[in-house]
Amino acid sequence: MNYAYVLTGVLIMALVTYVVRMLPLAVFRKKITNQFIQSFLAYVPYAVLSAMTFPAILSSTSSGWSAAAGLLVAIVLAYKDKGLLIVALGATAAVFVVEQGMALAGLPL
């Protein structure tokens, strides 16, 4: 393993992350008072997180059926105001049960 190569990669990633986080602070010196921009910026983290995780949810299991079951359970538990741990465990359990059921039934995964 080339440690210099790995360390250089980590340092470059750290620098890029730092610049991306510090750039808005350096560019926008005064407080943003526009209500539209404030509300837009309030929802950006949720939109970005959704855009990054939703495709992974549907492609991270062995079967589309188990992914759909996990997603459905997660939506129902989140709708019922359960905590993040309960939602994650419930979705994981649903995926496990569906995949095990498909394997026992001899269905292709």
Automatic annotation (TrEMBL):
<feature type="transmembrane region" description="Helical">
    <location>
        <begin position="40"/>
        <end position="57"/>
    </location>
</feature>
<keyword id="KW-1133">Transmembrane helix</keyword>
<feature type="transmembrane region" description="Helical">
    <location>
        <begin position="6"/>
        <end position="28"/>
    </location>
</feature>
<keyword id="KW-0812">Transmembrane</keyword>
<feature type="transmembrane region" description="Helical">
    <location>
        <begin position="86"/>
        <end position="107"/>
    </location>
</feature>
<keyword id="KW-0472">Membrane</keyword>
<dbReference type="Pfam" id="PF05437">
    <property type="entry name" value="AzlD"/>
</dbReference>
<dbReference type="InterPro" id="IPR008407">
    <property type="entry name" value="Brnchd-chn_aa_trnsp_AzlD"/>
</dbReference>
<protein>
    <submittedName>
        <fullName>AzlD domain-containing protein</fullName>
    </submittedName>
</protein>
<feature type="transmembrane region" description="Helical">
    <location>
        <begin position="63"/>
        <end position="79"/>
    </location>
</feature>
